[in-house]
Amino acid sequence: MTGFLFFIIALGWLFGYLLDSQGILILAVIFSVLMSIGSYWYSDKIVLALTRAKPVEKKDNPELYRLVENLCITAGLPLPKIYIIEQAQPNAFATGRDKNHAVVAVTRGLLEKLEKVELEGVIAHELSHIGNKDMLLQTVVVVLVGVVAILSNFFLRASFFGGGRRRGSRDSGGSILVILGIVAAILAPIAATLIQLAISRKREFLADASGALLTRYPEGLASALEKISADQNPLRAANDATAHLFIASPFRGRQLQSWLTKLFSTHPPVEERIQALRGMNV
């Protein structure tokens, strides 16, 4: 996160220098934060609407409620709202702006296809996301990615229409700086997205470890991940905007495990997560 902030400050300084306007970074940050406040405040409602999740009461599924309640007591967390997605693919996610406004959603397939210890491992993973404040972290990261996109877009537009201290400069040094600025403006959003995805993958590893410590049984989550990744049912309620929330990628099909695929993935490879869990000593 510190590196991300330094990256944005350096980018803002470069663009501001080339356009002779050091207020660009400040304006971009303010604009991105204001745009993100609404989505952060209503993130749970937006995600639940997109995934068509339905609330479930204790009388509807007392076993699920007891499992979540017991894990919340162990983790020292308030009981989140519980939702069910009527889909055959086993999967789950957590959302909400903080631990007092959190939501845990599970698919019907998860409830039907996992053993109790496996389901407990999945719920512990999602509660760990809440306890680790991952929803807040992801919101901050989205804001930072938005700042980079706005800065890059503004610089490219200003460069094409002319302006700034480099407009009148015809020397080779000035031309090189402008070219470097344009290259940076094109590559910066890609770099910011890669940082965002890397943070997302790291938080999945952390939630796996925290969840395993919560249940004291890493094998439960490891076995659950095996079943989830092996299931070929599509999850039609998922899309690119919500895929990173799920415990495992909701997209099914043949996926190449090249270094490039891993670089642009929202989740670490399941094999690596299972290996890490089975290597834990709790």
From TrEMBL:
<keyword id="KW-1003">Cell membrane</keyword>
<keyword id="KW-0378">Hydrolase</keyword>
<feature type="active site">
    <location>
        <position position="126"/>
    </location>
</feature>
<feature type="transmembrane region" description="Helical">
    <location>
        <begin position="135"/>
        <end position="156"/>
    </location>
</feature>
<feature type="transmembrane region" description="Helical">
    <location>
        <begin position="176"/>
        <end position="199"/>
    </location>
</feature>
<feature type="binding site">
    <location>
        <position position="204"/>
    </location>
    <ligand>
        <name>Zn(2+)</name>
    </ligand>
</feature>
<dbReference type="GO" id="GO:0005886">
    <property type="term" value="C:plasma membrane"/>
</dbReference>
<keyword id="KW-1133">Transmembrane helix</keyword>
<keyword id="KW-0862">Zinc</keyword>
<dbReference type="InterPro" id="IPR001915">
    <property type="entry name" value="Peptidase_M48"/>
</dbReference>
<dbReference type="GO" id="GO:0006508">
    <property type="term" value="P:proteolysis"/>
</dbReference>
<protein>
    <recommendedName>
        <fullName>Protease HtpX homolog</fullName>
        <ecNumber>3.4.24.-</ecNumber>
    </recommendedName>
</protein>
<dbReference type="GO" id="GO:0008270">
    <property type="term" value="F:zinc ion binding"/>
</dbReference>
<keyword id="KW-0482">Metalloprotease</keyword>
<dbReference type="InterPro" id="IPR022919">
    <property type="entry name" value="Pept_M48_protease_HtpX"/>
</dbReference>
<keyword id="KW-0479">Metal-binding</keyword>
<keyword id="KW-0645">Protease</keyword>
<keyword id="KW-0812">Transmembrane</keyword>
<dbReference type="GO" id="GO:0004222">
    <property type="term" value="F:metalloendopeptidase activity"/>
</dbReference>
<feature type="binding site">
    <location>
        <position position="125"/>
    </location>
    <ligand>
        <name>Zn(2+)</name>
    </ligand>
</feature>
<feature type="domain" description="Peptidase M48">
    <location>
        <begin position="59"/>
        <end position="280"/>
    </location>
</feature>
<dbReference type="Pfam" id="PF01435">
    <property type="entry name" value="Peptidase_M48"/>
</dbReference>
<keyword id="KW-0472">Membrane</keyword>
<feature type="transmembrane region" description="Helical">
    <location>
        <begin position="24"/>
        <end position="42"/>
    </location>
</feature>
<comment type="similarity">
    <text>Belongs to the peptidase M48B family.</text>
</comment>
<feature type="binding site">
    <location>
        <position position="129"/>
    </location>
    <ligand>
        <name>Zn(2+)</name>
    </ligand>
</feature>
<dbReference type="InterPro" id="IPR050083">
    <property type="entry name" value="HtpX_protease"/>
</dbReference>
